Amino acid sequence: MLNKTLLSSVAALAMLLTAMPAKAEVSLMYAEWLSSLVEPGIAAFEAETGEKVNAIKLPGASYDQRSALDLAAGTAADVIQMDSFMVSEFASAGYLEPLNEQAAKWDQFQYYMPGLLEVASYDGKVYALPTDTDVRMLWYDKSNFEKAGIPLPWEPKSWDDVIDAATKLKEAGVQYFFQLPAGIKQGEGATMQGFYMALLGADAPGEEDRNRLLNRKTGQWIGDSPAIRNTLNLYKTVYQDLGMPKDLNYAADIGAAVREALANDQIGILASGSWEDACLWDCNGVNLPSREERDALVGWTPWPGNGAPGSKATTNISGGWTIGVNSRAANKELAFKLVSTIFDVGNFKAWTLANHRMAVRTDISESPEYTADTYLAKATALAADTTGRDTIPGYQTVSALVQQMTSDILDGASVDEIVQGYHDALVDEFGEEKVVTYQ
Fold this sequence. Notes:
The protein has helices spanning 2-19, 35-49, 63-73, 87-92, 100-103, 114-119, 142-147, 159-171, 188-199, 226-241, 254-263, 276-279, 291-297, 332-342, 345-354, 362-365, 368-371, 374-381, 395-410, 415-430; strands spanning 26-31, 53-58, 79-83, 121-122, 125-126, 128-130, 136-141, 176-179, 214-215, 220-224, 267-273, 298-301, 303-304, 314-315, 321-325, 435-437. The longest helix has 18 residues, at 2-19. The chain is 45% helix and 15% strand.
């Protein structure tokens, strides 16, 4: 009798367990430095849903390579952090789930700045949500500007204004009067902090996206255009005509060398990004002088367009990190629920403020706590009119060719021969039908 009762109880329990839905576990991979954003989001998600998150935390070094390998092998987590420049590569390969449909049902999606969603998009669809961003500008040493007799605050309206200031700084004895990133060793810094920032304001955009590397409507790389030539001529003016010293572009540690030169009042103008508000002193934000001390030493101004009719008054291009959903995730709704919980305004705003990050959403950037930081408030305003790199497949090859063009300027080559070499390299790589020339 006892055995029959036991068997009946076991059978009933088995039926009950069969009827109960199994817990749907969702996995998340992220870099260690993002823990303070991700981990409170995980805790909130688990408390709200009762579901378990398999959190895979990795060191920041080589994180990009690991995420790419895992996605290609089909072993990536359901939710994955990635650098924004990799989004289009992953999306075009079918590794990421488009988020537009699910995001449209989330009441906080409306606050993301369109230009920053563009950075995380491919072929018109959003594939990830940005965690933070950056913008680019011209930094300047105030003591050197005073020495050169240039009025402060400095607000150039055209490239001529920038070159005029650089010339005055040179005449005043400033060694590195305009540090414009150039050369292969600068890597993506030469493309984004220098070449592309100038390119975006080098011509009237027109219907053909004439002031970019890529015609985004046709998918053709631009092999020759007035904008490309104007940008190279700006580099030529700085490095060949004015004789800007080249050595910082070849330093063993370029970032450290540039910041040491600025600290020693050897730099007049520096083309760089929003991170320099901390990195000029300590990129970890630990040993920063007060806001007043920093503002007394350096200033910044938006990159102006070249001043030609129809060109943009100021330019910007942004990058940053993102979080997206694996197209192979077993439960995509649950995966997006984890993403939206991480980005819930309570968690996301607290992280943005505590880490002095540039906001990517207006509900955060327009909050009193955020605007109380005068630097962040002004720098973030530049993101309202920013754009992203042309990060379709092939971009990294094109960026390397751009870096080579700036390197050729340092070597004294002519603009005509540089453009011809660039055009021919694009044709060799992508085929004639994928390359266009504008007159």
